[in-house]
Amino acid sequence: xxxxxxxxxxxxxxxxxxxxxxxxxxxxxxxxxxxxxxxxxxxxxxxxxxxxxxxxxxxxxxxxxxxxxxxxxxxxxxxxxxxxxxxxxxxxxxxxxxxxxxxxxxxxxxxxxxxxxxxxxxxxxxxxxxxxxxxxxxxxxxxxxxxxxxxxxxxx
Length: 156
Known about the structure:
- 83% of the residues lie in helices and 0% in strands.
- The protein is an all-alpha fold.
- It has one domain: TspO/MBR protein (Ferritin, Up-down Bundle), CATH 1.20.1260.100.
- The longest helix is centred in the middle third of the chain and has 27 residues, at 71-97.
- The termini are far apart.
């Protein structure tokens, strides 16, 4: 029964986080289009594609890692996973929703730490599940740098 819940609940939570973040992002696109962006800013369709792949990998990773867990080990995994989803959503809220680019840089660093915490926590449970999160860590690192440069180009 727990496995069925995992197969359903984990993707639903990721979808909800991505969907809510997407709503905020879409609402902030007029503002975003007025920003000075660095030349290495990827096009929007590419960013959306990458996030889709990352969210799929995150779901597979958490499902694999949680299959045989119970007790406190499972609770910690769930806590880190939910914290990560909250951090992911919060970046969209700070950047696109509230236009607080400087705070979004700091939050993005914290998001990166949450991804790294997931990787470190999952590694002893499943190397494969942890490795599936490497693209997430790399992308958030890139996004943090991009956000920082956008902040530098647009601070007043």
